[in-house]
Amino acid sequence: MKTAWFYPLVRLTARTAFLLTRVKVTGREYFPKTGPVIVCANHINSADPPLLGLQVPRNPVFFLAKKELFHNKFFGRVLRGSGAIPLNRAGVSGGSIKLARQVLDHGGALIIFPEGKRNPDGRLSSAQPGAAYLAASFGVPIVPAAITGTETVSGRWWFLKTRTVTIAFGRSFRLTEADVQIEKDDLGGHGDRIMEAVAELLPPSYRGVYGNVRQ
Hints:
Blueprint: H1 7-17, E1 21-26, E2 37-41, H2 48-55, E3 61-66, H3 73-81, E4 84-87, H4 94-105, E5 109-112, H5 129-138, E6 142-148, E7 163-169, H6 187-199
Parallel strand pairs: 1-7, 2-5, 2-6, 3-4, 3-5
Antiparallel strand pairs: 6-7
């Protein structure tokens, strides 16, 4: 999968939109410098994908987005050209798997939000099976990422407000080896393991259903 000619313009537009947002990043040293990698993060606000994508030390960056965002033909074309792959949050489709595999087979970086939805209060919810299936199926390193502060991105003039957003990357790990067949009954455990790694990077008040993980 390739990005469109306007991909650099989209990144520049995102940087401009968040010009007044101070982003504090930790853990970049845990990010594999080469090879395929999946970034799994919590999801608070629609600002999460561009902010996280701008801080991932790889380029280009691809991400999975709910398929409903692609219903508008023009916006869907812009999303695809910007590195977005449509995903059915309740499951997986052949098209999503094919495109995600193309990204990873070419050593790319793929962002997944395993919760499958935004949680505006910042508290983690349980992982959905779609993202967990993809993360487990490819057997590539997973880098957990924790985002805090994007709950303040709201209002018509949000881009004119100053704020601080924190993004923490954790140590990479693998769920499985490559090309291991994933059993449906294992998806819940895989999803929980991913979200527990994310929860460890978050303040206790953000951990939600994963509040019992160690600090």
